[in-house]
Design brief:
CATH class of the largest domain: Alpha Beta
Shape: elongated
Helix content: 25-40%
Number of strands: 15
Low-confidence stretches: 239-243, 262-274
Structural class: alpha/beta
CATH architecture of the largest domain: 3-Layer(aba) Sandwich
Strand order of the largest sheet: 2-1-3-4-5
Order of helices and strands: EHEHEHEEHEEEEEHEEEEEHH
Number of helices: 7
Largest sheet: 5 strands, parallel
Strand content: 25-35%
Length: about 270
């Protein structure tokens, strides 16, 4: 994930970058800071940053300030999520002139930054990115669905067990997560959600994951879990099988000197033979 920062002074740019790195929670999330809006616009088309933090009264742009810059950015990168920051809390009214996720008064940035960043990341997630946002007291982390083994209820929190890396503890609920997760995830008890792509086997009492972990399955959930898991894995096997069959078919066509892209056109082979 890439974040652009455009602020009026070097000190303000550095402070926004510091807060972003503190709360992003992932070293792969990058940040670029600008005081020159023109230089920023030269790069935004190719970079298409997921998040942009803009000084709403951006001095180099005059009266329109950061709102005008946000409009230009969204015109070429509509998926970018805008966060405004301003010295005067009353400037928040100007922010309504363009789509944005949050306005932060500069004096309160340290407190409101994780809220603003969370809203921007969640907005990106809603637009189809297959990931959940894990929130703790100190960080926000984006966890891709493919990386999740299973999710475990832990009091008022959940434990997100991932393929690689440490288990993450987040302030969330099993019920809320089930509302946003896709159909690869199965609720197998009141306390567990599993990624069916990561299941190795199923027994009466437990699911065994590919990494060897065993997840309890309640008696009340067993019949449905077995049915859903069987249907899902059969559908996955069919898709994979069709993909392999198509690959073999395309390879055979190439060996015969036939273009696979035109194989469905009855006139294409006649044209070549002439």
């Amino acid at each position: 994930m890439l974040c652009y920062i455009c602020d009026s002074t070097a000190d303000d740019c550095r402070e926004m970058a510091r807060l972003y790195k503190k709360y992003a929670g992932d070293p792969l999330w990058k940040v670029k800071a600008f005081m020159n809006p023109e230089k920023l616009m030269n790069l935004v088309v190719s970079d298409k940053p997921e998040i942009m933090i803009i000084d709403i009264s951006l001095k180099p742009l005059g009266e329109g300030g950061g709102v005008d810059l946000a409009k230009k950015v969204l015109a070429v990168s509509p998926a970018t999520k805008i966060i405004f920051v301003g010295d005067d809390p009353l400037h928040c009214t100007a922010a309504y002139g363009v789509k944005h996720e949050y306005f932060m008064p500069r004096a309160l940035c340290a407190k409101t930054f994780p809220i603003a960043l969370g809203k921007a990341i969640e907005a990106s997630q809603i637009e189809g990115q297959a990931a959940i946002i894990v929130k703790t007291r100190d960080i926000l982390a984006r966890v891709f669905y493919d990386e999740i083994l299973y999710i475990e209820n832990h009091g008022r929190q959940v434990l997100v067990h991932v393929v690689k890396g440490p288990t993450m503890c987040s302030y969330a609920s099993i019920e809320n997560l089930m509302e946003i997760l896709d159909d690869r995830f199965l609720r197998c008890s009141k306390s567990y959600i599993v990624n069916m792509d990561r299941v190795k086997s199923l027994s009466r009492r437990e699911l065994t994951m590919r990494n060897g972990d065993q997840v309890h399955i309640s008696q009340s959930h067993f019949a449905r879990a077995k049915r859903v898991l069987s249907s899902y894995l059969e559908a996955r096997a069919l898709v994979v099988g069709m993909g392999r069959l198509e690959s073999r078919h395309r390879a055979a066509l190439k060996e015969m000197g036939i273009d696979p892209e035109s194989a469905g056109d009855p006139n294409s082979h006649e044209t070549k033979s002439k």
